[in-house]
Amino acid sequence: MATVFQGLGATAAITAAANPLDSNKLLLSSRRSFPGKKTSLVVVRSDGSLNLNTGSSAGARRLDQLVTNAVATKADAAAASSASKPGHELLLFEALREGLEEEMDRDNRVCVMGEDVGHYGGSYKVTRGLADKFGDLRVLDTPIAENAFTGMGIGAAMTGLRPIVEGMNMGFLLLAFNQISNNCGMLHYTSGGQFTIPIVIRGPGGVGRQLGAEHSQRLESYFQSIPGIQMVACSTPYNAKGLMKAAIRSENPVILFEHVLLYNLKERIPDEEYICNLEEAEMVRPGEHITILTYSRMRYHVMQAAKTLVNKGYDPEVIDIRSLKPFDLHTIGNSVKKTHRVLIVEECMRTGGIGASLTAAINENFIDYLDAPIMCLSSQDVPTPYAGTLEEFTIVQPAQIVTAVEQLCQ
Amino acid sequence: MALSHLSSTRSNRFLRPLAAAAAAAAASSLCRPISTSTEPLVIETSIPFTPHKCEPPSRSVETNPQELLTFFRDMATMRRMEIAADSLYKAKLIRGFCHLYDGQEAVCVGMEASINKKDCIITAYRDHCTFLGRGGTLLEIFSELMGRQGGCSKGKGGSMHFYKKESGFYGGHGIVGAQVPLGCGLAFAQKYNKDENVTFALYGDGAANQGQLFEALNISALWDLPIILVCENNHYGMGTAEWRAAKSPSYYKRGDYVPGLKVDGMDVLAVKQACKFAKEHVLKNGPIILEMDTYRYHGHSMSDPGSTYRTRDEISGVRQERDPIERVRKLVLGHDLATEKELKDIEKEIRKEVDEAIAKAKESPMPEPSELFTNVYVKGFGTESFGADRKELRATLP
Q1: Contact, A320 vs A294, CB < 8 A?
Q2: Which of A202, A263, B176, B244 is most deeply packed, by most CB within 10 A?
Q3: What is the ipTM of this complex?
Q4: B94 CA to chain A: closest CA distance, Å?
Q5: Is B195 left (phi over 0), alpha (psi -120 to 50) or beta?
């Protein structure tokens, strides 16, 4: 767990931020205090807005492009830089669909099952058109019985099929927790290696726009201890397609976490086939002063904050960890060795989230390289409220990230 | 068989002074008491099948002497194996949970007789005998029970996790009822690949009250999956009798729109007939439920004495009247397919086999410490990690 968590207050002085997504409402002068934690008054430097760091002057404009330049590639796949070939533009859910379709074309054993994935086309349109192309058996509409159809997918995987089980919302997969934990994760081990479970379990999770507590869950924190599974979180159309393909091809069970609010992200991705490495983190923005580790939607909040930080003269290194289990400690470690400061920004709850495990892992492995305690910004340990203002307070906002960085870099 | 009587009386008259053994030997050399004939034999099951929304199969089961003797041998091996496991557990060589199948042998033996190795079987934790029936060896079983390397799951699974992929045995599951959706998955794959094979998903009367059972019934009926749901009703869900756990203990009727059949699970021929019927039915018409009315002599597991919720009289009553091995013994003797002595010899042979397997299993070493971390993931795409930080727990294992 992060050893220091200080109450952060967003103050009205952060005016240099170029319209952060939802943090306008956070321009309060009151201090937020959290029970049981140390709180301190944070003073924001007033000179940040005028002092542009010439070293990264192009940073503000380049940030948009940097977001899309993913680094990771499979060893024998084509180079990933999207600037190399024209490519085609699409939205994230279309990228997922493209990856899925390519894999279904490539291997007859790949099939999809879930609620409304077939005729309806998927509640987030990820499987639209696939049932017409591949038939009702390969793109199977299931009744609302998560336990049964997840178990069915695992049983089918035991025989050699490669099913993709879609949870309409990740939170619904809690009903299949027994199947995922005991059967999916453990069968390879308890059978002494006889069975492999090449299943992909995917679905949208995370806090959306006022979807309510039960539909805003972050299951990565519950699943992370299950031995035998891999977890990845996609955040851009490029890595969504790449991770989908890698997950389908992997012999291990993979849980692919998508985010409800990221489905309409647009990006230009390469025409040629590519796969992302399942265990590799993505360097979003190289920097010198501090390492910011994040994943999924928080990546965008971090990048938003990075714009502000750059304007204030900081040079954050932003890494999208992508692989939630196992962590890519190679990339992360190299970054920590360079910057000596770590900030983790995640959407999981404070207690027992991915950030908690990551903090422990970094502390254990790289304590000698740290100049300051690791700070972990997570969502509050509350059910996500419906009211918009409260929902914003639940998750980490760019303003808080800026304040945290400034604090760490003092 | 009249020949044997004739020859033995004749030889008795002429060879009276000689020991009876010699006479018997002379008699046996003139005919073969243990029949290996495959001449069909039609035997009626003791009670008729009770159907639910289907036409029951006929009570007359076609079998042959060789098959009956195989039944006897297989069931006796299973019985001996379970009793040996009981002693090993009490000697603390088997630890944890050990669920014994003695009394229920007819179900797995009868099932095996009607299917092939391409059909899949999946069951819960009372899986030792089912594994044996699917082609497992006694050595693998005892090694796994004692947690040794030679076990079928390399010692990492234990009593509740026996698997044999090549023979279509998919386990071996500890959580009650969770194997039924897996069974739907096996059937789904069979349908997907267009094999003409079926899946038998076994569960108990306790598991029959699980929600996932009804989910599984719905999806298998909806998609016509080739699955046969077999409820092994031994009338007790651990310590709770079926009338205390279920409003409707007619488990074969629970499928509602899914047809069902109630079978005397202690009669191996009835089980064989029912499974054969079920396989044919399912390949044409979609799922079916078979309720096997059976009984376990031991408690739920070795930690359960089995006598707090039922009387010893009940247990011995069932043993006297319905024991599956005794039934086959009576059939074999009644049809003169073997003599009493031969059957006893078979049992002695089995006992020796089991003891030898145990001795050999005891010699098998414990798994290497490095085996702790193998088979967590399949190798590929660089995953060698065990924990979130790619590190293994650095501890010295005793």
Answers
A1: yes
A2: A202
A3: 0.81
A4: 17
A5: beta
